[in-house]
Amino acid sequence: RQLNPKVSAFQRRFVGEVRRCEEMEKTFTFLQQELRAAGRVLEPCPENPRAPLAREALRVQEQSEQLAQELREVSRNRASLRGRLRELRQYLHVLREGQRFTSLPAPLGSPPRPRALSEREPILDPSLHQHLDRKINFVAGVIHPWRVNAFERLLWRACRGYLVASFVEMPEPMEDPATGESITWVIFLISYWGEQIGQKIRKISDCFHCHMYPYPESEATRADTMSGLHNQIQDLSVVLEETEQYLAQVLDKVVLALPTWRVQVQKMKAIYLILNQCSFDVTEKCLIAEVWCPVRDLTQVQDALRQGSYKSGSSVECFVQRIPTSESPPTLIRTNKFTAGFQSIVDAYGVASYQEVNPAPYAIITFPFIFAIMFGDVGHGLLMFLFALWMVLYENSPSLQQASNEIWLTFFEGRYLILLMGAFSIYTGFIYNECFSKATVIFPSAWSVATMANHSSWSSAYLATHPSLTLDPNVTGVFQGPYPFGIDPIWSLATNHLNFLNSFKMKMSVVLGIVHMGFGVLLGVFNHVHFQQRHRLVLELLPEMVFLLALFGYLVFLIFYKWVKFSAADSLVAPSILIHFIDMFLFTSNAGNLPLYRGQVPVQTVLVVLALASVPVLLLGTPLYLCCRQRAPRTGRPAPVTTEEQEPLLEGQEAGSSVNATKEDVESGGHGPDAKHLDFAEIFMHQAIHTIEYCLGCVSNTASYLRLWALSLAHAR
Q: Biased-composition ranges for Basic and acidic residues (predicted)?
């Protein structure tokens, strides 16, 4: 619990230590980024190291900062060497390709060159110097391939054609320093006359981010330059290889140490964050903390405090005292790998209050089953079951546990949920008799086509003109009784298959939905009995059940009654349940819709009146009861007697200094009748919200359960 609510986070006692932990975490983040950039995978910590002491924390901080500094320097040097090596290789390629442009040999067997200028004449042919009034200059370099077309057009327009530009792709791809991608650069060589045009060309090249290199005029100078570039490239390659080896050694050190450091610093930071929530006593020598702790874990807490006192060399042992309180404790629900997925679904809607009934154990069955009603298919359910079974069998595999894909982790954490969903889908698939949307004939069909043919006048002409034949269950022997399990496979061939499943699944969804809601309401019985609020059984639970059963429970009764009373013989005169249910709310009857039983209208009128009468009881019952109870005169109660059950938690503590709460104080969790002064406005508002939510929820949830019918049909289609 936060015992320093009025102290800002920057003024608490251990804020310096927390900042130091955050600085180390920043260093660890940098180290992890360097590992990721180098293609290294950081394995999880193989052991569970303890939180470091102050001296060990300083050592971790120094070593991590030293490694980070080394990585920065080595990475900077490697980037510089790579950049320099890339420039030398580009320069070498520029000189090689430029050599072809400026020293093009004459073809073998060609006639003597004419004195006039020609496109085939080499630019630097000595025999042509007498035709040149001005000196020819060159601009050479490399450009990104995407910018070549625009660069060439702008050169031609700006220089009005007083230049000769040549472009050729580089023989090997090289890294783009801006993006890190490997691209094939384009080498250009531009010859021009006049210094002004040369300045324009250089400015345009700078605007297009070209890498320009000096281009010697004579062949001898170019040969010497290329020879020097070869030597420099060899030397830089040796130095770069040694730098890469040293970088790999530093990264190896990081891979070994970083997982343990991260766990240690996380623990240390968590400890200091907890210490910042503690307060000091008057002498500022004792640290006081208030915590909620399960009774089962008190012994472990005491042992941990004793060990901490012993390891720290403290002369005074830490001790625990139970403090009486009327506050409701926080809810702790212990889960395992099987129940965690179901508990998280329940917690997404709301966490139960302290010692209330936890609906998650029931959701372990109801959630997969309701899903299976919508997903009922043997084949699809089997695929889902096998996929989940594979995850369950290999759940300890590091490759499955350490995957970084968020969608995959969602599936993996819900593997037991998917396992049950697949198993229940197989079960409901057998009921629907669907395997990959095809019917299976496990048992012989209960419908006999041969019997129908023997008792009917199906001639060849009749069969030729009627593509669909009707099987009449009223004919003896045509329908031989219900199918042993699930739906008869002959329905998959029927043209009225969808009409039959519509009626079946719609009624099934309503029945299961109302049973599910009624079960949820009945769980409140355990809460009311446990917290000794028996008045809520009469003033809340009873009106809720009356409202639910008088309206929607009666609907379930009508469904089953119609199933039992009417058979195939009198099915044509069977009334509509939906019209009866609408007439029930309108307090009327429909002459065209026959009653299901005698006295149906008075019974329905009484049920609607009961449902309406339960609403004000639910709304006003609990607030009025608590108001009357608060105003009633109280009788004096005897003072509590100290017994042996209220002994101190620590054996070395004297009984007189114990502040342990009584068992009733702890278990009531603030739910007791005298936990605090009642605020009737708040109670009435809470009850009004609960009443409106419950009454509207009964209607909307019943309609909402029809999605079982809709999605089941959609999945089958």
A: 662-672
C-beta separation of 31 from 71 below 8 A: yes
Supply the DSSP string of 94-135, one letter for each residue.
HHHHHHHHHTPPPPTTPPPPPSS--TTS-TT-GGGGGG-SS-
Tokens coding 632: 């009633």
Pick from 317, 315, 286, 287: nearest CA to 303: 317
Q: Which two tokens stand for residue 292?
A: 């909620």
Measured CA to CA in angstroms, residue 705 lies from 43, 509, 622 at distances of 47, 6, 30
Percent of the chain that is helix, strand, coil (3-state, to 5) = 60, 5, 35
Residue partners of 183: CB distance under 8 A and separation at least 6: 144, 145, 173, 174, 175, 176
Report the range of poorest mean pLDDT among 127-131, 296-300, 565-569.
Answer: 127-131
The domain segmentation of the chain, as residue ranges, is: 336-446+481-489, 495-631+678-716
* Residue 76: C-alpha distances to residues 26, 83, 182, 656 (Å): 19, 11, 20, 69
- What tokens were used for 653? 């503590």
Q: What is the pTM of this model?
A: 0.69
pLDDT confidence tier of residue 51, bands split at 50, 70 and 90: confident
Closest by CA to 190, choosing from 154, 223, 226, is 154
Q: How far apart are CA 297 and CA 308, in angstroms?
A: 17
CA distance 666 to 676: 15
Distance (Å, whole) CA 418 – CA 362: 16
Q: How far is CA 189 from CA 118, 146, 333, 564, in A?
A: 19, 17, 76, 97
Pairwise pLDDT comparison (103 vs 690), residue with the higher score: 690
- Could you report the per-residue pLDDT of 440-458, keeping only the tens digit for each? 888 888 888 888 887 777 7
Hey, what's the torsion of the CAs at 395, 397, 402, 404, to 10 degrees?
Answer: -70
Residue among 236, 243, 239 nearest 89 (CA): 236
Radius of gyration of the chain (CA): 43
Alpha carbon of residue 258 to chain centroid: 27
Angstrom distance (rounded) from CA 110 to CA 118? 14
Closest of 138, 137, 146 to residue 209, by C-alpha: 146
Residues 6+ apart with CB under 8 A from 698: 517, 547, 548, 551, 552
Find out whether 713 and 498 touch, Cβ atoms under 8 Å: yes
**With contact defined as beta carbons under 8 Å apart, do 547 and 691 qualify?**
no
Which residues lie across from 80 on neighbouring strands? none
Chain length of the chain: 717
Taking alpha carbons only, the member of 479, 359, 368, 371 closest to residue 419 is 368
Beta strand 279-280 with 287-288: parallel, antiparallel or unpaired? antiparallel
Under 8 Å between Cβ of 528 and 537: yes
Contact 43, 259 (CB under 8 A): yes
Which amino acid is located at 311 in the chain? K
SS3 165: strand
> 447 near 477, Cβ under 8 Å?
no
Phi then psi dihedrals of residue 525, to 5 deg: -60, -45
Quote the CA–CA distance of 671 and 656 in Å, as a whole number: 28
Distance of alpha carbon 285 from the chain centroid: 46
- Long-range contacts made by residues 151-155, C-beta under 8 angstroms, separation at least 24? 151/188, 151/204, 151/205, 151/208, 151/210, 154/204, 155/190, 155/201, 155/204
Output the CA angle 531-533-536, nearest 5 degrees.
130
> Using an 8 Å Cβ cutoff, are 561 and 596 in contact?
yes
CA distance 240 to 89: 14
Per the DSSP assignment, residues forming a β-bridge with 435 are: 438
b vs e for 570-590, b when ≥16 Cβ sit within 10 Å of the residue's Cβ?
eeeeebebeebeebbeeeeee
What count of Cα atoms within 13 Å lies in the side-chain half-sphere of residue 475? 14
d(CA 266, CA 24): 10
